[in-house]
Structure formats: C-alpha cells, structure tokens
Design a protein that fits this description.
Elements (H helix, E strand, L loop, with lengths): L1 H15 L18 H5 L4 E3 L14 E4 L2 E7 L14 H18 L7 E8 L5 H12 L5 E6 L10 E8 L2
Parallel strand pairs: 4-5
Antiparallel strand pairs: 1-2, 2-3, 3-6, 4-6
Helix pairs in contact: 3-4
Length: about 170
C-alpha cells in the first residue's frame, strides 16, 4: 500500500509540472538531425555538406525513426571530382567513404548498415569490388545485392552503392 501511495505521489508531481515549451530547431543545410527529428515519424533529410550535389533533386539520405536510407553513393570526392577513373577498387573505397560521411551526418556508424545494393558497370571487376568492400565490412558484412548495369548517371562511374542503416 505504501508503494502505491508513493507511485501516486510521483505521478501527481509529474503532472503538476508545467509543460515544456516545444521549440523547433533551426534548420541549416549542413546541420545534423536533432534527436527529436530522428525519432519523429516524419522523414528527415541528411546532408553531409557537399556543394557539388546542391543542384540535384535528391537527398543523400533520409532518416525516419532510427532507420537511415542512404541514396546511391558514387565515386565523387566532397568537391565533386571522380576518384579512381577506371579503377574499381579505388572507386569502391570512395563510395564507402561517402557512405560513412552520410552516416556520420546522421549520427550513425558503418556497423549500423544492415543492407546494401551495389550496381557495377563491369561484371569482370566484381571480385575487385568484393575485395574493397571486404576491407570495409570484414567479417560482419550486411545483407547485399549486386547488379551489373549498362551504365550509371555520370561518365566514368564503375559503381554505385545504396545502403540502409539502423541505429540502435
């Protein structure tokens, strides 16, 4: 009986406090999503701050709850220059650096990736891609799909990877 009384007292104290005033965070193109945005049921755009993509009608990622959907990442560095022309391993490494940058902007890590889809333009370089990808994930690879395609959005691209990550 005493514990019920104590519980009621704590509950009464909680309801007696004035409600916290909700203030929307200032949105900037390069800000990380706030905790309230990440837990909301409305998708939040994740922007790693690259200027080369500002004119493109896309989000580098969207987050809803604790799930982050990373758009297909290509082998462009933060300045928008192609990395590793003709070199699948170099392009794959750059793609995963970009995925990491996007996840960093969302407050997530590479180990939070649960699924990737990979698109390559040259099936004969599949093993090179797997080797470079293995350097990223080691013994804990995500579920994955790989598809050979005729081409990608920009000349010189050999690979594009999209990812889904879930923060704990």
């Amino acid at each position: 009986m005493a514990s019920q009384t104590a519980r009621r007292t704590r509950t009464a104290k909680k309801t007696a406090r004035p409600a916290a005033k909700k203030v929307a965070p200032k949105a900037t193109a390069f800000s990380k999503a706030t905790a309230s945005q990440q837990n909301a049921s409305v998708p939040t755009i994740i922007d790693p701050g690259w200027s080369w993509d500002d004119g493109l009608p896309l989000a580098q990622a969207k987050q809803i709850g604790n799930t982050i959907y990373v758009s297909g990442q290509i082998a462009f560095n933060p300045e928008g220059k192609l990395v590793g022309k003709g070199n699948m391993k170099a392009q794959t490494r750059q793609v995963f650096r970009n995925i990491k940058a996007v996840l960093d902007a969302a407050g997530a890590k590479m180990e939070h990736i649960i699924k990737i889809n990979t698109y390559i333009t040259d099936g004969s370089k599949f093993m090179d891609m797997l080797e470079a990808r293995g350097d990223v994930f080691g013994k804990n690879p995500p579920a994955s799909t790989a598809v050979v395609v005729a081409g990608l959005a920009f000349p010189g691209l050999l690979i594009e990877v999209e990812a889904i990550a879930v923060k704990p």
